[in-house]
Amino acid sequence: xxxxxxxxxxxxxxxxxxxxxxxxxxxxxxxxxxxxxxxxxxxxxxxxxxxxxxxxxxxxxxxxxxxxxxxxxxxxxxxxxxxxxxxxxxx
Length: 91
Fold this sequence. Notes:
Layout: H1 2-21, H2 23-36, H3 39-42, E1 43-50, E2 56-59, E3 70-75, H4 84-87
Antiparallel strand pairs: 1-2, 1-3
C-alpha cells in the first residue's frame, strides 16, 4: 500500500512539473487563479512621491504625512523595473 502511494505521489509531482513547464497551460491556470483569488492576494500597492530634492521615491509604505503621493497597483507576479511612469525619469 505504501509503495503505491509513493508511486502515485511521484507521478503527480512529475506530471505537475511538466504541466508547469508548458507556457499555455501555465497561462491558463494563472488566468483562472486570478479570477478565483481575491485581488488583495494577487495585487500589490506601491507608493510613489518626490522627496524635497526632487528625486522620485517608490516604496511599499506611504511617505510621512504632508507629502503628496500616488498609489501604483501592480500584479504580484510582475517583475518591477523602474520606468518613466514610476521614476519620472526618461532613459
